[in-house]
Amino acid sequence: MEIIRILLRSKRFVLGFGILAAVLAFALLGPRFLTDVAPFQRVGGLYDAPSRDTPLGTDNFGRDVFTQLMFGTRTSLHIGLVAGFVATLIGVTIGTLAGYVSGMVEEALMGFTNVLITIPPIVVLILLSVAVDARTATTMGVIIGVTAWPWTARAVRAQTSSLRTREHVDIARISGVGSLEMMLVEILPYMFSYIFMAFILQLTGAILAEATLSMLGLGPFQTVSLGTMLHWSLMWESVRIGAWWAFVPATVFLSITTFSLILMNAGMDEIFNPTLRHTR
Amino acid sequence: MVRLFRNRPYLLYLTRKAFWYLVAFVAAVALNFFLPRLIPGNPVSVIVGQMSAGAVESATLERLYATFMRDFGLDRPLPVQFWTYLTGVLQGDLGTSFMLYPAKVWDVIRQALPWTVALQVPAILVGWILGNVLGALAAYKGGAFDRVAFTGSLMLSSIPYFCLAIIFMYLFAVHWPLFPASGGYSSGYFPEWSWGFFLDALHHYALPFLTLVLVAIGGQAIGMREMAIYELNTDYVNYARKLGVRDRRVVRYVFRNAMLPQITGLAISFGTLIGGALVTEAVFSYPGLGSLLFTAIRQVDYPMIQGITLIITLTVLLANFLVDIAYGFIDPRIRAGQAGGR
Amino acid sequence: MPNVVEVEGLEAYYRTPAGDDLKAVDGVSLAVREGEVLGIAGESGCGKTTLAQVLGLTVRKPLYIRSGKVLLEGRNALALDRETMRREVRGKTISAVPQGAMNSLNPTLRVRNLVIDVLRDHHPRIRRREAVERARERLDLLGLPPRVLDAYPHQLSGGMKQRVIMVVSTLLDPVLLIVDEPTSALDVTSQKVAIKLLVDLLARRIIRSIVFITHELPLLRHVADRIAIMYAGRVVEVGAMEDVVFRPRHPYAAGLVGSVLVPEPGMKERTVTGIPGRPPDMRRPPVGCRFAPRCPRRFDRCDRDPPPFVVDGRKAWCWLHRDAPHGGRP
Questions:
Q1: Architecture of domain A11-22+62-279 in CATH?
Q2: CA of B183 to nearest chain A CA: how many angstroms apart?
Q3: Using a CB-CB distance cutoff of 8 angstroms, which residues of chain A are in contact with residue B85?
Q4: What's the complex ipTM?
């Protein structure tokens, strides 16, 4: 629990975590306590202004924006978590492997990774999304995850290479510890804070990727996400009509969610990356 | 070969880079070719089937079917299909559009590409320069200036492009109608080289440009600040101070060295920011690739989507390559190579 | 002989990011005389590098001086303004060869340009060509190839980098050169060459004095005139090289002299295995003698009271020598 005490010392981390916790609570508990309509239920007409029953008005289909916002945030976080998990898993596996085994395997893995980094992720995302027809939130998360891992792989490899030459790894190697055990026991535990930060970045990127894809019309089917909310509000000209309640909530939620994650990351960076400490 | 590169480290660097970009190019083309074929069943039937849900005459459908069977070459083995596709791409043949049938995909893209390039490249460059200046100042000044600049940059960079675009459009085009809300030029004008058109286009340009620049500033400032703080604490800075080198000069060392990774960062931002930037175009209905992509996806115009993704990839690869060439000139270590007074 | 730099009752602290103060140097008085090589030895973390920073007048955050005097050629050095300090003192009166020579040269600057910057920032009227010419002559004099001027740091070997730094640091003929662990990153051959270069600089009277910081006491036998041994932020023994090395008074100095240095792979510094135990936690140092918990000759009093300061031609802070002639408190 030492780690929590250290994290709490960073104001940025605490602020970011607080915002994220509030968003999470809204998305997870909101549907139980704050609304009694279903997300796709029609409660009014096209872009009804906010009222007592519909605190954030209605969208283009006459659905309650407040309810949509709760479910949408939940879907966006769901997609982000799946994608973040997939990307971190692949990235850490490939990065650790490439950093630990040197020579041809490393060259091949990193060559592959670097080629993938050069190709803009949005391109692969679009092509994959078009190819996969029935997109649930989970499949979208997987699609985003499998395109986003190269950055994590690259960062993890650099860390692993520097860890490999440390003393405790040498001692373990001399004592005859096997390669797999070595990676799991002697290398990965030293990178937990680092991997966690990479995960947070992936989560942020994934939430944005979901919104981007959904805005383009490649969002999850039969569910509402922050991105699809924006997609419909854009298709139905809410901005030009001036129906701010149709686009402001999703915009604000997307922004504060990513902001909270980036703040947490910056806070952790301050703590775990001592060269960034401002000592001048 | 070895002799060719001896004492020409820059040439070696360039050749190595060119090789990797070639690999990336082939990989990108392969992705563009294979991913659509993940669609279960005969993709042409699926696509045309999806289209037939709309109100299209059956004669048109048959013609479409024949055109796409030819374009895709589905009756032939996969390697032959790939070869057909590759040779087609190299000759600038990206197939036939579906929503704009019988227009060729390349012809449509060619109209939209200049708008995208004219919007994105200056926005990224200006954002990059301003971001670096801001980040460098934050790192050097420290204290309150740093805290405000850093938190502001974090905030800016965490707002997705298109969110800022929507907010700007609402505020400055709808609520206070200072700028036009959509398009690249007014309906009374036609793209031509005239003052009237230029000023009108500039008026339409302002909001999308401002959006892209602001978000880019945030991201770049964070990167530069991090690099500059790192450099300010390096051994060579301490040593130069111990030797009594002037502060001004030490600061110059630091920023020069912190800039170098930022140049690579510029190349990266082309690739990572393009997604959000395309959606920003769609938000403003700017007549570039983003809006075209938006429409193509809605109309399930597969050849068009594929063509756009390919062009985006190629443009990004080209931009990256240009940045790498410039980097080789700027980083003295690359030109000097390893040979020297050991 | 006059003193180049002198500290009196120095207390220096590091302020941690959390806002705590860590004591690094605790009540040290020490003078560097003109014309001498003063060795400072001790385990890592004993405060020797901090003391070197104070002697080199390069104190910067998070390190700060809480109390004590720092005199430069008899004048209060803490009162000097920044610009005078930079122009008149740094590189000119006191110069340094920093720890970690591998990264001490700017990776994107040719040695030639560093030389030009250093010379012109002290003699604004010197021409670039003259500056390079002066550096070339100096390299020649000291037997180094002048072509290193055209090199970027990554083109130089580790040993060559170290020698180039020594030459650049002494371009302005400083009175005092402070060298911090100059050999710890080098192989044995390069170590010898580096030490030889230092001796050469003294012999040619390019520099007058050296403060030589190291954790390897035996190294000082070949270069030092006097040696100060540090432990847990304090100087525990000071004296002529022969006395400290061959007839140490303080049990810690004796342990340091007698200890065997065992290389361990991957460790930055080697452990002193002759003395069991570890240095105390500086946040809660022992009340009595700081070395007492590890001392083989400890007795009750050592735990209770700080040891006196004994003068019998030498100084050693230890209760064992309480009854020596001329003994007294500091």
A1: Orthogonal Bundle (1.10)
A2: 13
A3: none
A4: 0.86
